[in-house]
Amino acid sequence: MQKSLSLNELLNQYAQGKVSKKAFEGQIFTFILENRRHFHLFTWDKDTCVDFLCWLYPRMSRAIDTYHDMGASFDAYIASLVYWSAREYRSQQAAHDLTEYAFWEARAADMNPCENEPAYLEPLSAIKPVSNPRQTLMLLLKSYFFVSEDHISRIAPAIGIEKAQLQRLIDEVRRRRLERDEEIRGLNERIQCQYYRCMVFKKKLEVTLEGTAKYEKIKGQMERGQVRYNAMRKRLAGMSHYATNREVAEVLGIPKGTVDSSLYAIKQKNKAVPRDHASPAGVNA
Q1: Quick check: is 116 in a domain?
Q2: Lowest-confidence region among 46-60, 99-113, 156-170, 221-235
Q3: Which of 79, 201, 239, 245 is 20 to 30 A off residue 43, Cα-Cα?
Q4: 114 inside domain
């Protein structure tokens, strides 16, 4: 193990112009790596110490330029810099690890592999015509948000309408609903971010000493975050993904009352059919 005066000797060589600043910095870093215990880096392996020194480099470079002999040796000056910087680095790494853990835990459900969609049991040509095409069309437009292109291809022949025409009607509903859908999408993203923030606060609270000022501060942040998260979810629950009856009526060019009565009739019909035997509204069993 080298003596502590080695850094002072290296400084003298640098001050006399015998080594460049870049070489001087490299010598300091090598000294720290070889004497980690001297700098209170007891539990760090070499790789972790190298990462720390890379993070420390800009601060170390500035410290060399600003050092003046004010009674403390250069060795003590660097030791103090490394000690306090290491504490900050540990704190930042711990916060980063907690944040990363909370992020992956929050997103774990979204990352599960999706199951393949089940194949349709009957070919497209075998779909039976629906008993009330008009009601079914209204229901499709009402539920535009959940209608896929494949579903349009399958249902269009059953209600006696060209696929392209049905697609235009649904696209028109989507155009009218675009602003509302963007608002819903944005709120969904903010809810996910808020959930992630709450997870971070929760993990930080678990590793913070209870009863300290820091613990109480994080606890307060978490509680406020949860209140906001619940309020955002409640607001989302009140924002419908369905088109309004008025929007459906405007797209079809019919009175709103006609849409109201038709959809009400579908609702009442479904209520009267036992759940185990219920079939899609308007479709022949």
Answers
A1: no
A2: 99-113
A3: 201
A4: no
* In the block, residue with structure tokens 């990352």: 111
Give the chain's mean pLDDT. Answer: 80
The rounded Cα 238 to chain-centroid distance in angstroms is: 23
Q: What is the DSSP letter of 284?
A: -
| Burial grade of 180 (CB within 10 A; 0-12, 13-18, 19 or more) | middle
Structural domain containing residue 211: 128-277
Residue 147 sits in the same domain as residue 246: yes
Structure tokens that stand for 241 in this block: 């993904």
Same domain for 140 and 91: no
End-to-end CA distance of the chain: 87
Cα R_g (the chain), whole angstroms: 34
Tell me whether residue 67 is in a domain. yes
Return the minimum-mean-pLDDT range out of 98-102, 122-126, 261-265.
122-126
How many beta carbons lie within 10 A of that of residue 162, not counting itself? 10
**86 and 200 part of one domain:** no
Contact in structure between 86 and 52 (CB atoms under 8 Å) = yes
Q: What is the pLDDT of residues 185-199, one digit of tens each?
A: 889 888 888 888 888
d(CA 167, CA 152): 7
136 and 194 belong to one structural domain: yes
**Quick check: is 51 in a domain?**
yes
Q: What DSSP assignment string belongs to 64-83?
A: HHH---SSS-HHHHHHHHHH
CA distances from 73 to 24, 36, 80 (A): 16, 19, 11
Asked if 142 and 255 sit in the same domain, the reply is yes
DSSP 18: S
* Whether 143 and 31 share a structural domain: no
For 57-100, how does the pLDDT look when each residue is reduced to its tens digit (9 = 90+)?
888 888 888 887 666 788 888 888 888 888 888 777 766 666 66
> Residue 111 pLDDT > 80, yes or no?
no
pTM: predicted TM-score of the whole model, two decimal places: 0.50
